[in-house]
Amino acid sequence: MTDDAVGLPPHRDSELSVWPRLEALLPQVTKPIQYVGGELGAVVKDWDAATVRWALMYPDAYEVGLPNQGVQILYEVLNELPDVLAERTYAVWPDLEQLMRTHGVPQFTVDAHRSVRRFDVFGISFSTELGYTNLLTAIDLAGIPMRAADRTEADPVIVAGGHAAFNPEPIADFIDAAVLGDGEEAVLEITTIVREWKAEGSPGGRDELLLRLARTESVYVPRFYDVDYLPDGRIQRVVPNRPDVPFRVHKRTTMDLDAWPYPKKPLVPLAETVHERYAVEIFRGCTRGCRFCQAGMITRPVRERSITTVGQMVQQGLEFSGFHEVGLLSLSSADHSEIGDMCSGLAEQYAGTNVSLSLPSTRVDAFNIDLAQELSRNGRRTGLTFAPEGGSERIRKVINKMVSKEDLIRTVVTAYTNGWRQVKLYFMCGLPTETDEDVLEIADMAHEVIRAGRAATGSKDIRCTVSIGGFVPKPHTPFQWASMSAPEVIDGRLKLLKQAINADRSLGRAIGFRYHDGEPSLIEGLLSRGDRRVGAVIHQVWRNGGRFDGWSEHFSYQRWVDAAAETLPAFGVDLDWYTIRERDELEVLPWDHLDSGLDKDWLWQDWQDSLSQYEQDDCRWTPCFDCGVCPSMDTEIQIGPTGRKLLPLTPVTALKVPTAAQQ
Amino acid sequence: MRFTSHRDFARAFERALRRAAVPVAFSQGFTPHPKISYASAAPTGVASEAEYLEVGLQATVDPEQLRVALDAALSPGLDVLEVVVAAGGSLAERMEASYWRIELPDVDPEVAQRAVSAFVAADEVQVERMTKQGRRTFDARGAVTRIDVLPPVETPSGAADSSCAILELVVRQVTPSVRPDDVLSGLRVVAALEPPVSPRVIRLAQGMLTAQGAIVDPLDADRDGAAIGEH
């Protein structure tokens, strides 16, 4: 099967490569190595031998996008199929974008430097909504019509995935489809549909292909749904505009992570990136129930990877990559049923080597310190991070982050007495029902941590950093109805907090303070809970030069405010309407037709519980509280313990010299 | 690969050592580092067929086995050409000069020849470059012991249909170092030569400089005896 099926003239591989034209531009740009490809683990396949061709994008700079687990996993899963080819593309910096426009070089993949427009499917993974403007740049540079409605058989099907795809409405005009949930099996299903459709001679063109995707009930095709609005601007309903299309689209859940041990061959770049480590996801999903946490809500149920699979993945991943750092990832890593054995087993296996182990996302308790001690056996004890998220006991009940002040202080002091000198405390500002007092309690907590730490260690050489993020209400969480605080309110509270921390100069000297301004959070809020009308704002911001909005040096709040003021009044709404307005129970939310498994009534009940500061337990250890995910998705909690242990590794003593056959 | 910075290369090389299970010696101290010293690395954006480095090992290995293992562990385009056991002495000190080739697409070789002649005729040519210490002015002429324009031929990199001037030059290792782009700046100063397209630069060799201006392979002194060349 060649391109003939999609109506394109036959061509040679070399004609597809933009490399000669790109290479001439690279000496003029910063960090040209990021556009070169050639990573260890990268795959370049014969174009003509492939039936289905995917371009995968992480819509941020290469240094951020390359380590992304999601893209790496899908890249590997797809390339394992003999007749499928997957390549990667990332957002280009404005200096190269300018040159590409001047010299007519299109958006390209880094693997074989092929033009993105020539692929069958263009998949983009959104971890954050702030990547939307970069999507528009990529579509435009690729030479693909900006609006999905204007595309033809000569254009790839643009599919969005990742957490932000749980509400893709703001980018509904620009994408052809969105996939909710786990990607491993979804990409295979889409591949099968594209393959069959092409083999049949592409009957019915693009419309038929999209219809076949929509009929799976797990691929959302925005153009097949109409949105009606009420006179006051709220949504009246979202309904299919043709037969054969499901009323609701359901998320995908990959069960049995042991059957999907990816990445096996992690990408190892020549260029410097934000994470230089072999990362293995030790479980997916989280039922801690933090009410602000979209990741925890939309990835349920908890599915563990077994201790032995993790051990094997680490061993093979390190051997393949040459990395000397391992990250054990998940949403709350200390909650794995065999985390203790896993950490001590790995520490034992890699004792005396230069391999270091890290465990991000842990909770606040003494057990966590035991684990950290295990992991830093032969290394340094530089820093530990704890996330109480809320400053006061009251606000922690609102967000369902169950940790008492006493526990926190005890845990941090234990860290200090065990040799750690630096502890980072992470909080959020702008939470529902929050007052100045809730935020000011962060200062008390930090002071007490330093006071107790100095008393316990007898040393003044201990520090803590208070790091504050802005709260953004997200779809499919109990806070999806909540109002946001105006940026001035957030910035005012942060100023008061800073004064309170420094009110005691002796203690204040040992406390670092880092925060984000309220403005970017407000825009993230607009995008995360926006509907299709917000697409006009995104498009306008992009036309006015908006790029890399996740980067503070590129983000312009004014550009967003102006674009919102130019486009939204035509619809009778405005920026405040999307952000600081609280929604009521009966309002149709833009993502109601997209099914994350969570029962909307349960989410509303949890929102009410939150307002009355009623806490919710974790269903791994207490009875099911009927969030709705397991029955509606036909899934179940998959946790250990398996009772197995990690065995010692046989040390490698000989050089690894490849045999002639492998050369 | 020419866009790889020295830092990028160093990281890739250390990972290759681990992948190939090379018994590297580590420095003592709180954060042990592998014992590797890089001799006179080519600037970013420049291709090279002649880079050298030294690695300290904890155990004896067969040099050819090490070459094959490391070559396989490095990305395509980073090739290990030869491994020898160091006989002693400083490898860096043997890097007295480099032999460079500069391709100037869309530059008429005769125009290039006039610029080179003016450059050679000058006693010194002051050029400017941004360094870590800020903007510096220095002489780009003194360190150039030889510079020629090759007779016109098709360029190997494919810019065949337009004219392309090719320069070859030998530059001594001096402080501040004179790089090929400094020589190009020199040609701009003496003859207003402005290449319309980015030049392609490649290092063909480096090593000791004989009285006759030839470059001697820096590994001659250790031959049959661990330095590694890559390009």
Automatic annotation (TrEMBL), chain A:
Residue ranges of every copy of the Radical SAM core domain listed in the record: 272-514
InterPro entries tied to this protein = CHP03960_rSAM, Elp3/MiaA/NifB-like_rSAM, Radical_SAM_N2, rSAM, rSAM_horseshoe, rSAM_sf
Q: Which Pfam families match?
A: Radical_SAM, Radical_SAM_N2
Q: Can you tell which superkingdom this protein's organism belongs to?
A: Bacteria
Q: Which PROSITE patterns did the record assign?
A: RADICAL_SAM
Q: What Gene Ontology molecular-function terms does this entry list?
A: catalytic activity; iron-sulfur cluster binding
UniProt cross-references to PANTHER family, sorted A to Z: RADICAL SAM DOMAIN PROTEIN, SLL1084 PROTEIN
* Protein name as annotated: Radical SAM family uncharacterized protein
Q: Can you name the source organism?
A: Micromonospora matsumotoense
UniProtKB/TrEMBL annotation, chain B:
Which InterPro entries does the protein's record reference? DUF2344
Pfam families annotated for this entry?
DUF2344
Q: Could you tell me which residue ranges the DUF2344 domain spans?
A: 1-180
The protein's matches in NCBIfam families, at most eight in alphabetical order, are given as:
sam_1_link_chp
Q: In its UniProt entry, what is this protein called?
A: Radical SAM-linked protein
